[in-house]
Design goal:
Length: 275
């Protein structure tokens, strides 16, 4: 009922091979600390600058070097590895932002395509339009893994509590959220939203983040977090530097939180009326 989980924080460059090497090194270190479940951040393989560069970095599933690398790591280390997200070709001018889960035998247990796409103007000239390039996923994904029943989400999904509730109602015990949060929104919303999703669902939340100043011109917030089902921050990577956080995940705490406040069982259907 109890195991060690780790979140890995990186600062991805525009060079795929370098990013994969750095992620692999940190994954090995996390396993060396006893982690059985390891979560990598969103865009773990690359943070490119231009549309053309982003499309060039994308690969078909059978041709992306991240997949055999992370499969081999999971098998060699005997861990469950949530491989953040990588860019998978979806169409000539579109791609999926896809998260993979690898089991301790190296097999792909599940994959999830990011549903909610970050189209935002957060001020000071910082504008994002993921839907111009990324094709949204159409299905929520939960998966039974050796350590726990996982619910898969990515970054901007954090702002859509209905997704998290559905995953919890499907039996999820641990929610994973690889992310590349912006600094302004991270400062304002990161901690409170992650704690809220944990409290609302009675799940552990493992949020592995990109952090720091990237070659592509972006700056990401960092502060990877592990949150308990009661909303307590069990571990935090203070700041935006690369590194690892770990925490003990006691799955009995899921049932305990849900018995204390049974909001998952108390939901009701209702109509909306005006005035």
């Amino acid at each position: 009922m109890s195991f060690t989980a780790a979140c890995i924080q990186t600062c991805a460059t525009t060079r795929l091979e370098e990013n994969l090497r750095n992620a692999a090194d940190l994954t090995r270190q996390a396993a060396g600390r006893g982690a059985r479940l390891i979560v990598l951040p969103e865009n773990v393989s690359c943070l490119a600058q231009t549309r053309a560069d982003k499309l060039a970095e994308a690969r078909g599933e059978d041709a992306h070097p991240a997949i055999p690398l992370f499969s081999g790591l999971a098998k060699d280390l005997r861990v469950t590895l949530v491989a953040g997200s990588i860019s998978i070709t979806a169409a000539p001018e579109k791609m999926f932002n896809r998260c993979y889960v690898f089991g301790p035998d190296g097999g792909i247990l599940a994959h999830y395509d990011k549903i909610h796409l970050y189209d935002a103007n957060i001020g000071a000239g910082e504008v994002y339009a993921e839907s111009d390039l990324i094709m949204p996923g159409r299905r929520a994904v939960h998966v039974q893994t050796p350590p726990a029943h996982l619910g898969l989400t990515l970054c901007y999904d954090l702002r859509f509590p209905e997704l998290f509730r559905k995953l919890a109602l499907a039996g999820t015990e641990v929610l994973t959220l690889p992310a590349a949060f912006t600094v302004p929104t991270g400062l304002a919303h990161w901690h409170v939203l992650l704690r809220a999703r944990a409290i609302e669902t009675g799940c552990f939340v493992l949020a592995a983040a990109q952090g720091g100043a990237h070659e592509c011109g972006r700056r990401t917030f960092g502060h990877s977090l592990i949150v308990s089902p009661w909303g307590e921050v069990l571990a935090e990577k203070n700041g935006d530097a690369p590194g690892i956080i770990t925490a003990e995940i006691d799955l009995a705490k899921v049932a305990e939180a849900r018995s204390r406040i049974a909001s998952l069982r108390h939901g009701r259907e209702f109509a909306l009326s005006q005035g």
